[in-house]
Amino acid sequence: MKLILAIINRDDAGAVTQNLTKRGFSSTKLSTTGGFLLAGNVTVLVGVDEEKVQEVIDVIKEHSHSRKQMIPASTEVNYGYYPSMPVEVTVGGATIFVVDIERFERV
């Protein structure tokens, strides 16, 4: 048994979870914040048998897209840093962790 944790952009969360459900996978969505822009993300949790891991990753890859975004000069990026002009950054995509599950029980 494996636990897949996928941190994705909130704009892609609906498509990812809907398509996981269509493929027969149950998932749990957690609202999270982080990254360079401290933007809203979603962490999706999926528990699957080892042979299904790649199928889940393929669904996440297909529906999590990176995109360019401009951050305005008036936005504090991090650590008190204010860029003097708008900066283009890449957001989106997915960060995926696959973790071994030692024990699993339904109660």
Word description of this protein:
By secondary structure, the chain is an alpha+beta fold. It has a single domain, classed as Alpha-Beta Plaits. It contains 2 helices and 6 strands, in the order βαββαβββ. The strands form 2 sheets. The protein has a 4-stranded antiparallel sheet. Strands 4-5 form a two-stranded antiparallel ribbon.
Key terms:
alpha+beta; 107 residues; single chain; four-stranded antiparallel β-sheet; two-stranded antiparallel sheet; Alpha-Beta Plaits; 22% helix
Layout of helices and strands, plus pairs?
Layout: E1 2-9, H1 10-22, E2 28-34, E3 39-48, H2 53-63, E4 66-71, E5 87-92, E6 94-100
Major sheet characteristics: 4 strands, antiparallel
Number of domains: 1
Output the CATH topology: Alpha-Beta Plaits
Helical residue percent band: 10-25%
Arithmetic mean of pLDDT? 84
Q: Could you give the count of β-strands?
A: 6
Order the strands across the largest sheet as they lie in space.
2-3-1-6
Shape designation = elongated
What's the oligomerization state? single chain
Strand content: 35-45%
Compose a concise summary of this entry:
The protein is built from 2 helices and 6 strands. It has 107 residues and is α+β, with helices and mostly antiparallel strands. α1 packs across α2.
